[in-house]
Design goal:
α3 (127-137) crosses α4 (142-156) and α5 packs parallel to α6. This protein folds into 2 domains: 4-9 and 66-262, P-loop containing nucleotide triphosphate hydrolases (Rossmann fold, 3-Layer(aba) Sandwich), CATH 3.40.50; 269-399, Coagulation Factor XIII, Chain A, domain 1. 22% of the residues lie in helices and 32% in strands. By secondary structure, it is α/β, with parallel strands linked by helices.
């Protein structure tokens, strides 16, 4: 039987734009008057959805609306979404840093949070003193904290500076110590925001490994927010996708990543009507699609998988020689590559009237994680001439993975470069 350790029930959080606190005195008095008469807060009925890209009509905005989910003991839950989706607000409510406007949180056990660099640390106190302070906040005795002290210091890698005031630590050192405190003082629930991205490669690897250990072997629960899909995929067992303050998906982590990425890229398949199809006097493009290793149309592909892009066209006139061109662009509109089918049979022998197709295979462990869009062209040689060149036909995402079969290996931090081939090192 599953054991629920954390439960969110109808969590909503409302803010008043441009105000510190609850707003004007008249609004506070109005709330009090309604409460006195046993009526609902009148400002719960107004407010815009949390979409930062549009101009609202109200001074009130819902950062979160009607959030419901349960977390089992030992589960690692990934919370993903675009900037402004409400991820950090939700973690602050779960950590009891701020209170929800409506709803409640039910938890069984201590909650430790790592939301921002230096959260819960006193800059004037030394690293050692902050360890005891944080342990006391978690409800641990001095004896319990002392028994874990050496492990915390060793894991953090800050032994030389442990008796130095924290205000003199770098952001990386602060995160190292904060994570070590949160992980080793054995909270039942560990809540971690994007803050781990501040650490270096060695520390990120240790931190990911430690979170896996405390969930799988320690039976403790982890809530993890990150924009790094490689880290999310390697660590989490289940995911929640937030959009404009609402849960739009809850389920397995692979499906959650698919949902998150599907909403932010081009379609993996495109068909044209006869009137709108790119064409010349002898050829018409009918449709294009991106296929996975199972030959299924798919927008999301792991970095190790081959990606197939198939273009289907109709020959309208015989005795025409031509070849195909393909261009690939990343989501920053950087032109990654251009490829011409210089050895195509269509340069030597004309195709009969009817439907034909050509396929491009992009090998796994070649592209870096990103969103991509494709263009397709029909060209002639001798002399060279472009019949048509259609941009942004189909798109796809490359999702990174952590593992020895990738260039990344066990590193979970930012990996620069617009391509990421798995090269032979000798």
């Amino acid at each position: 039987m599953k054991e629920i350790i954390l439960k969110a029930e109808n969590i909503s959080k409302q803010y008043r734009l441009g105000q510190v606190g609850t707003g004007t005195l008249s609004h506070d008095l109005n709330r009090w008057w309604h409460e006195l008469r046993g009526k609902e807060n009148p400002y719960l009925k107004i407010g815009d959805t949390n979409d930062r890209s549009t101009k609202g009509e109200s001074d009130y905005v819902w950062a979160l609306q009607d959030i419901n989910f349960e977390v089992e003991r030992g589960e690692v839950l990934g919370i993903i979404g675009k900037n402004g989706a409400g991820k950090s607000t939700l973690l602050k409510i779960l950590s009891k840093v701020t209170a929800p406007t409506t709803g409640n949180i039910k938890s069984r056990g201590r909650i430790a949070s790592l939301l921002e660099v230096g959260t819960g640390f006193n800059g004037e106190m030394t690293g050692r003193e902050n360890i005891f302070l944080n342990g006391a906040i978690l409800g641990m005795t001095k004896k319990e904290i002392t028994s874990k002290l050496e492990e915390i210091i060793e894991f953090s890698g800050c032994e030389r500076y442990i008796d130095t005031p924290v205000k003199r630590y770098s952001s990386g050192m602060t995160v190292r110590l904060a994570f070590a405190v949160a992980a080793f003082l054995e909270p039942e629930i560990l809540v971690i925001d994007e803050v781990l991205a501040v650490g270096d490669a060695e520390f990120q690897k240790k931190a990911i490994g430690k979170m896996q250990d405390i969930s799988r072997m320690g039976g403790r629960t982890v809530l993890f927010v990150s924009h790094n899909m490689a880290a999310v995929k390697s660590l989490c067992t289940r995911g929640i996708v937030l959009e404009n303050g609402k849960v739009v998906f809850e389920g397995g982590i692979d499906d959650a990543i698919d949902k998150y990425l599907n909403d932010s890229t081009n379609n993996a398949e495109k068909k044209w009507s006869i009137e709108q199809a790119p064409c010349s006097s002898f050829i018409r493009l009918l449709y294009a699609k991106v296929l996975n290793k199972k030959n299924e149309v798919s927008v999301n592909h792991f970095i190790t998988d081959n990606i197939q892009i198939e273009f289907t066209y109709e020959i309208l006139k015989e005795n025409e020689l031509f070849t195909h061109g393909f261009n690939l662009f990343n989501n920053h509109n950087v032109h990654i590559l251009s490829s011409h089918d210089k050895d195509s049979n269509t340069l030597k022998k004309s195709l009969p009237l009817g439907i034909h197709s050509t396929k491009i295979i992009i090998p796994g462990n070649f592209l870096a994680e990103s969103g991509y869009s494709c263009s397709f062209a029909i060209m002639r040689y001798n002399p060279f001439y472009v019949e048509f060149h259609e941009m942004d036909i189909v798109g796809f995402n490359v999702i990174d993975e952590i593992g020895e079969h990738t260039v990344r290996g066990n590193y979970s931090g930012r990996f620069p470069g617009i391509v990421r081939p798995l090269l032979n090192w000798k």
